[in-house]
What does this fold into?
Amino acid sequence: MRTVALFITCLADQFYPRVGVAVTKVLEKLDCRVEFPKDQTCCGQPFFNNGFEKEARRLAQRMEDIFAGYEYVVTPSGSCCAMLRQHHGGAMGKKTYEFSEFLSGILGFEFSSVQLPRPQSLVYHYTCHLRNLGIGDRSGQTLGRIGNIKLLPLDRADQCCGFGGTFAVQYPAISGAIAEDKARCIAASGAPTLICDDAGCAMNISGMCHRKNIPIRVMHTAELLAEAMGLDTSRW
Amino acid sequence: MFDFDRASRAAASDEAMKTIVTTAVLRQYTARTAEMKVLPDSGALRDLAGQIRQHAIDYLDYYLEQMKRAVEKNGGHFYLAADADEARDIILQIARRSGCRRIIKSKSMVSEEIGLTAHLESAGLEVTETDLGEFIVQISHDRPSHIVAPIVHKNKASIGRLFSQYFSTPYTDDPEALTRQARLHLRERFRRAEMGITGANFLIAETGQVVTVENEGNVRQSVTTPRVLVSVSGIEKILPRLRDLSVLIKLLARSATGQAMTIYTNLYGGPRAAGERDGPGEFHLVLIDNGRSEILAGEYRQTLRCIRCGACLNACPIYRSIGGHAYGGVYAGPIGALVTPLMNGLGEYRDLPRASSLCGACFEVCPVRIDIPRHLVHLRRDIRRQKLCRLGERLLFRIWGGMLRRPFLYRFIGRRQKKKLRRLADGDGWIVRLPKPFSGWTETRDLGAPAEKTFHELWKQKHG
It folds into this structure.
């Protein structure tokens, strides 16, 4: 049995706590022991991206100390994983994994080994930080191996959703135009569900779809797997 | 003073322009992706190209000397201009000394940078842009909006209307017919031109040659027809040896337009030699610093690797959403967001490095591996250090950071913020209007309200 420390990230903590529940339950189902160091806060990404190098380093170093005793750290966010791995580096960077990456790479989990109770169509959002980490496939083929899933093609799949952290608030017209383009492509795909493995992108895309009256359910891979494994993520 | 916020807002809401630009750059982006796959190992080739370019700029002083000697050995004249003023003046003097009044000019971003055409025209010379796109820019008194495709923001209909008015001919939007009109017009200009001006894609220090790539044959005309030839380039375009070109040339057109090669590749480096049947009587090479050696001396040196292929523009979601003019400088897109403030100062152009989602698409396609997102982040740091962003913003980050370093405070404020946000939400759990400083978010999209309990609370509930 592997012991895994969960790094929930500040956005998922606030906006998508159910993703944390799903990650925990799926990992437990796959024979992992999940722990949650409660002093964790933020990896420092907003500070790093805005050029506050010292503050970013202090925050990342905090995380390094808090997770010091663990062999594996798993996070449901590609961008926070990239922050720790590519920008902070250190021991924390080496042992931090994005959720799907951990499942395939470390646990050797086969997505084809599970299936959804009912057939579902979905599109996959390829987040920019997966590109920057060089992980994941752009069209979500891995997810497509889950039984009963029909993966639909998404136009301009490798184009950013326009989130970009504080950029979305500082330059709403540009960020909004990019998000609107993404929302249009998603609407054109005809899929009722979008799989998105980053809380920031999920907030941005779902918020734009809601503004434009595009009905879409945004889910994390962990939630989809939980559904396929028959796990209830609405409660512990 | 350049107002990026205004320019980018106007551009982002210009649906017609966005559609034209996006369609065109996506075509080039898709072609690039396909054509790169043809190379046996494009990744390694790009590594090598980056190393060659880095080496060339690391030893730029040496290679510039070598270039000068080689050009002079070929019988050409070599000039080094410190800034735009000096460069324009050198070129005007060349025209005056040689008695040239009619100039044909091919595409050159550096000539845009120094405002060359306007300067020569105001001195009474006739300058004709011979690249079709640049010709259209010239007769419509517009500005290029893309490094490689200057009229990427125009469609067939607007060019049709322009030509109908300019040539006093009936309207057509048939590209072939339009091109034929321009071609006939330009043919006459080629015939009587006394001086040709070209840019440079590369300079070969070893041989003293200028390399230009093109699809229309107008550069070749400019090189072979007029009696005086002037080539202008930034000092950084140097390659040490001719064989280095074999690496870069494989990447340039592929990255730019998705072509394996352009239709024409021109190498030239001096006046007509004895026994040669064509070529100019005089050859002048004008290399322009204009802030480059200052960039070379600092931490942004790597940006001088750029070969102006425009791949980063095509890949960029921001460029696709606002086009090139909104960047306010000669160079648009991700590379423009770096070089415009580096060359013209962070003060006026401080928005450019900040207006990025740092998605990394530019770095992914860069043929010479310029880590654009990293440099953008460093410029943001400079902006903060030079106190060019608002005090409130700096203060907010400071408070935020202080909170994140105190887990008790983080959890406490997190819970309070969650409650506050939930109160702002409508019955379906959506927030349509956020207060400052977050109001930007809801200007263009809604926000799903946070869940009833944070994950920290949920975990505590279960595990104590």
